[in-house]
Amino acid sequence: MANATAETTFSHAMLPCGVELAADVLADRQTVAMSFRMLCGVADDPPELTGIGGIVERTLSKGTQRYDGQGLADAFDALGAQWGANCGRQSTLVRVVCLPEFSLDVIDLVGEMVARPTFPEEACEVAVQLAQEELTQLEDDPQALLQIAMQRVALGPVYGRNPGGEPETLPRITPKLVREHWKSTYAAGRLQVTAAGPIDFAALSQRVEEAFRGLGSPTRDGRQPCGHKLAAGRLHRRKDLKQQYIGISLAGAAKGDPAFPVEQLMLGVLAGGMSARLFTEVREKQGLVYWVSAWHEQPRGMGLIHLGASTTPERCEKTYKTLLRELARIGQDLSEEETERARNQIIAQANTEDDLTRARAGGLSDDLFHFGRPIGVDAKLDAIRGVTLKQVREYARQLKRDELCVATVGPHEL
Questions:
Q1: Domains observed in the chain
Q2: Phi/psi class of residue 227: alpha, beta or left (left: φ > 0; alpha: ψ in -120 to 50)?
Q3: pLDDT, tens digit (0-9, with 9 covering 90-100), for 3-42
């Protein structure tokens, strides 16, 4: 049953087949954007087969009961649909943008791909080979290696896995195991579908129901919180580099935490543009780093704050201490001007992205993933507008800077 209010354009329903569906009805848009989020990711991979969820995602489109791989690609092209997919930590996403008149036909194609794949032998073997090659190429990208190391030390052996797999696990993945993994993890009860644009919600609901009816169990599953508790730790990846890459992670706010918008403003002050503190203090004034940033991420039910930089090996210790000092200094001397500038940047970016229909569908998908219901950009921006300088200072002061996860890539360990 759909649930819509006069204050919003959202409709939200649980379909009989088990799919959770939400739509942002935007009558004046020229395109329709849709996100199909299957609530399974690398955290659902068997440890000895890490990366198999990514192989499933790569091979969904290589053959179905109705199409071979080229035929499916041609069918999407015939509708002018642009689409892409990726496998993450807790979910696998298929995103599509198309003209409104083709949106229902596009649902049929996505349903064919997700609910009725055949996983041809050769396609699965090629996908494993490509994944292995990408792991080899990562060795030439120290910043990507840092990201992987940061995930591993901060999120542990399950949620911190590399979705791309590991050198020792990828060779074990066979077409038979790919089919078995799809069958055990893909189900209508794990699927969240969101759409934005000039949509008829009743017609959309009927077509989604038809496309995914019979896909696994209709029981709602895959919605449990991450459950991981951050514990202090260190991980060093030795590489013969001229630069040293440093990553620091500490506990932050989950998306549903009232402190989340406060954290957004704090990170805006730290890393939100050329006037942000990390850029001006660490790079421009002290010349310590080649790259510096701060960001956060939110597995379902938890949050992480990250600081990252690249510097010379000789300046590694000083850079590490300076990053932490700048984080601490937010709680001491944050100004009203900095707070307002960060607020304006967040609001401007959100409003700019809001003009993109695909961003509206993606934001709605994130809402279902984190909150289980539509929230919308207006409510989030109202929360940002309500954050005070005092709240940001207090939030920065209470961060547990003595419980850090530190990852380094380069010639020296901290």
A1: 10-212 (3.30.830.10), 233-410 (3.30.830.10)
A2: left
A3: 443 345 799 999 999 999 999 999 999 999 999 999 999 9
